[in-house]
Amino acid sequence: MAIAKAERLMNLALCLLGTRRPLSKRELRESIEAYLEAGSDDSFNRMFERDKDDLRELGLVIETVENLDGEVGYLARRDSNRLPPITLDAEEAAALGLAAKVWQQARLAGAASGALQKLRAAGLPEGVDPYEAHGALEPRIPVHEAAFEPLMLACRDRRPVLFDYRKASAAHPEPRNVEPWALECWRGHWYLAGFDRDRGAERVFRLSRITGRVRSRGTGFTAPVPDVVTVRETVASWAGEIADGTALIRLRSGAGYPLRAKAVRVRELGGGWDELEIPYGHGLDAWLVEFGPDVVVLEPAELRADVVDRLRAVAKG
Length: 317
Prior knowledge:
This protein is an alpha+beta fold. Helix content is 39%, strand content 25%.
């Protein structure tokens, strides 16, 4: 059985790599003997979907393309699946090995372990523990949101997604149709950067505000994907990391230490309150709401109004 599956996967990979145009499921079934022997259409569809996912797990970049007639096809472009020779010195291999050990989630642990084995083959010595000298540290990146895994796979495979999203200022979630670009972690929260088809512009979504199930769509991307630097700058901006002004707030004494760390000026007011001047950029209102009654916005007026609107939305449920 293992040999038969390996042969089937190899044949599917060769078909996808050898074509110059997307091949439909029907064409792939007619080209691969194991698929012809599948009993029903349902049996073939299940087998094909498993094989396609297995090839993607092995690192093959498979594109999903919809033609003018609405038929979905698949191909694996050679330029997308060709890697240059990997050469690593000891420090580079150790750094990548440490990165592979950061991921502790069940879904990512297998992929990280596989990547670590490839690093061993590329020059990471078997006897080297990437963070043996830092045994007191246990590096981890926690991922609690159920939306993380399907979005990670959608970013990798460049597949549009549908999900319901509740903005901090809204009482109810709204449907979003997004072409996902990248996932970024800021201040312990995960964000998705992508192209919002309904709004015709790039947007950033906090994963903890995604409700329900993330659904994939078979169509390809309609907007160009920016480079990594641009995406990270977008995430930073929408997460409030890029400031273009300052805000004045009152903060309860002994509270809000992340705000105090960013303050450019702090003045004691007495009565259990301090006055802080902090950098002000997009997303600051959402961050301030998290501190609840410990924060009072003094100026600018638009920031105060945004915070009040968000608090009212939360109060309404």
